[in-house]
Design brief:
homodimer, mainly alpha, 2 strands, about 65% helix, about 0% strand, binds potassium ion, potassium transport (chains A, B), Trk system potassium uptake protein (chains A, B), potassium:chloride symporter activity (chains A, B), TrkH (chains A, B), Cat_transpt (chains A, B)
Chain lengths: ~475, ~475
């Protein structure tokens, strides 16, 4: 078997970093004078100590670079280890959450899913609310880096198509992964700060603006109020919709844009397709409400825009009870969630580029059916697509659909009804957050589910966030034989 | 544009043949003395005349063989033209069906879907019941011939993998398509006769036995009673389950078996996988009932066997209200229907071999992830699978899932609820018959749906029966430019 120590070393360091991040909510609770700060002090000490010890224990195994197996194990290991420690404040704090609930909330945070098992969010200490926002914000930047740097190398889910691109299109200026990560992080921080300003300008308190900006740019969806965005005024809804859309675009395009080349941003066919689908969705959702009410109103348009964008980007905020809009709207939102945003963003799900690749392949095939001896090559963004990429995308799509089915059946086995099982599986696997129906819909909550269902959903979040194969590959025998 | 006359000629002949088939229900109604025979006389005259005139008008275009375009147009044209004329007895007869209902019923018959808009089946003239059975029986043999002879040539949905096989494994004894068709038809007739005998032996009247044997071997599911198989005793359920399984196996294996070689039948990995999945399904469905009732009973096992096999093979009979078995059973049945039977049988849906091919491809890819420079070839039944076949299967799967989504949304737009929309779309596209929920579930009926929903479902049946791409290719521009 291969050496596990380099993996443990990095995980240890990241766990310790998470512990350090707990100092922020500690300070907030200290400033608020609510007496809740010792929770974060305890959690921070435990987390930093545990992380430090793991890193220390593995330090003698540090080497140059990671093997393929080590990289896979690291990716999944990080998203299992961090939620364990990220859960501590929920277990120790005012929420007094049981292990399953604390882990569910932390996994939901770090995978930017945004399903919550907590109620009465308004009454929670400020530190805990900030911690929820921080988990999503860190999870969001973490996943972009993984998607840009690791997944292309691992050739998972067709992400290798962005391998050459990320390096090429920056014109060899940014040859190293670390530099890409740094540039993207700056964009991430910059967008978050702009979002804070917009929210404050439209009436949120600085604290709410900060937490919600974090969960907006992470397309995470955790909110400080049980009512989600229904707690805020119309102006915030429009700003949130704008920033959710921005957060679902490929971040590498922003890097290029700030470097002075707007062309890649404006000419990206993935962005065009994403915006096109979102526009159609908003029009149809508005129509569904207008036909139901017999009149076209601004709240209907705003509700369609905000909630449509929220589900399609996988953010998961709600500003209205869209279960009241009828089965047509519910199904549209369900399938929009299975489309998702762009690759290289914080949004999850199948993602637009995979549908584009699948359809490009199908178009080439239809052409081949007409002219069996012709040569037709599927193309994406003007370049030919290799069989390797197409096969990866296909594997992703099949695994996604089959996993969705298996998770749905598993949930129904624990006693959930049809719609809750299917929409819950989709909401977790695509990291959206809310599902459909009374229980886990926009006005509901995951608190009432049984423990088995919660563990199942937490697993689905992990698998979905890491593009399925990056997790599944670890369960194969050949992986451990290498 | 290409010559349409050869296509019209064959369609005309087939329409005339359908008209001739109306003489059977005519004779039955004449013998029953119910005064209903003129309906079939009128229908037969119109159908034979129309078919004859079409054939005559196109006769001067007859040529040797059909081009690719002509073959595509013929396949879809047949399954549009025959339902139009097959609908006449429902419009003229005791059912006095409106155009949409008559067409729905005939399309549901000829595609072997088995969804019905008729109620009070017990009270219908015998001729009409026989006509429903005949439509499914003819549709069933028609689709096997299309699947064995046409689709592999058209390279649709990965069926080309059976192209070499059908000819090869018969050891060059059967080089011509017509001979394959003849042999398979004999098996089809033979199985139907055995099924009639089994049903009569277990207590059905000869008439019921004949009609139900026809709809069993066609995995069609039309029944003579509103209660479906709940109208018959336990022994019929076991026999029906056996014959539904046989009808979902690749018919070419029976041809080889009757030619004296049992080995291909026994060693077919598609058959193994199909029987394995069906066994797991029956065990889980039995468990779902036993856990609910607190006891294991014969009716529970029989209900699980009969209804599980009925949905998985896409037959669509019901012997119990399986909506009462809970959400777990409902979801299991829903996904079992999306698996389907074996290729080269009368059953529809995605089919077992496509999942096998997709998973073989994924396995090869996982191996490639571990060892990026190794060469891993997906294999099926011991042979390497070409990229062409894999791409076709992938295209089929993507189109299937996307079409399922689009049809679901379209149905919800007409006012159907979530479960009815999704399960109705699946039931039509996979040619199963019944859906889930009150309205179109095992105890329900499609009569109450609005007309738009009925047309949409009829279209889904057609598209699903012809493996999607065979229909979609006609909507492409390049098709007509050839
Ligand atoms: K989310
Ligand atoms: K059927």
């Amino acid at each position: 078997m291969f050496d596990l120590r380099p993996v443990g070393y990095v995980i240890g360091l990241l766990v310790a970093t998470l512990g350090a991040a707990m100092l922020l909510p500690l300070l907030v609770d200290l400033a608020a004078g609510n007496g809740h700060w010792p929770v974060f002090a305890q959690s921070a000490v435990i987390t930093c100590l545990a992380g430090g010890l793991i890193a220390l224990a593995c330090a003698n195994g540090v080497q140059q670079g990671l093997s393929l197996q080590q990289t896979f194990l690291l990716t999944t290991g990080v998203w299992v280890a961090l939620p364990v420690f990220g859960a501590l404040p929920f277990a120790f704090g005012a929420t007094e959450a049981r292990a399953v609930d604390a882990f569910f909330e932390a996994m939901s945070g770090l995978t930017t899913t945004g399903s919550t098992v907590l109620t009465g969010l308004e009454t929670l200490p400020a530190g805990l609310l900030l911690w929820r926002g921080l988990l999503q914000w860190l999870g969001g930047i973490g996943i972009i880096v993984v998607a840009m740097v690791f997944l292309p190398e691992l050739r998972v889910g067709g992400m290798q198509i962005f391998r050459a691109e990320a390096f090429d299109t920056m014109g060899k200026i940014l040859p190293r992964a670390a530099e890409i990560a740094t540039r993207i992080s700056s964009i991430y921080v910059g967008l978050t700060m702009l979002c804070v300003l917009a929210y404050v300008a439209s009436g949120m308190s600085p604290f709410d603006a900060t937490v919600h900006a974090m969960t907006t740019i992470a397309t995470g969806g955790f909110a400080n109020y049980d009512a989600s965005f229904a707690a805020f005024g119309p102006a915030t809804h429009y700003w949130a919709a704008l920033f959710m859309v921005l957060a679902a675009l490929p971040f590498v395009r922003f890097v290029q844009f700030t470097a002075g080349t707007a062309r890649p941003l404006l000419r990206d066919s993935q962005i065009h397709a994403f915006l096109g689908i979102a526009a159609v969705l908003v029009v149809l959702l508005t129509a569904a409400q207008a036909l139901g009410a017999g009149a076209f109103t601004e709240p209907a348009l705003r509700g369609a825009l905000f909630n449509g964008v929220s589900i399609m980007t996988g953010t998961g905020y709600a500003s209205a009870d869209y279960m009241q809009w009828g089965a047509f709207a519910a199904l549209l939102l369900f399938f929009a969630g299975l489309v998702g945003g762009c690759a290289g963003s914080t949004s999850c799900s199948v993602k637009v580029f995979r549908y584009q690749l699948l359809f490009a392949s199908i178009r080439a095939q239809l052409a081949r059916i007409h002219a069996p001896h012709g040569v037709f090559e599927p193309r994406y963004q003007g370049r030919p697509v290799s069989e390797d990429v197409l096969n990866s995308v296909m594997a992703f799509f099949v695994f996604f659909v089959v996993t969705l089915g298996v998770i749905s059946v598993a949930l129904s086995m624990t006693g959930l009804d049809f719609v809750t099982s299917v929409s819950g599986a989709a909401a977790a696997l695509a990291n959206i957050g809310p599902g459909l129906g009374e229980e886990i819909g926009p006005t509901g909550n995951f608190a009432g589910l049984n423990d088995t269902a919660k563990w199942t959903l937490a697993f689905a979040m992990l698998v979905g966030r890491l593009e399925l194969l990056a997790v599944y590959v670890i369960f194969t025998l050949t992986f451990w034989r290498a």
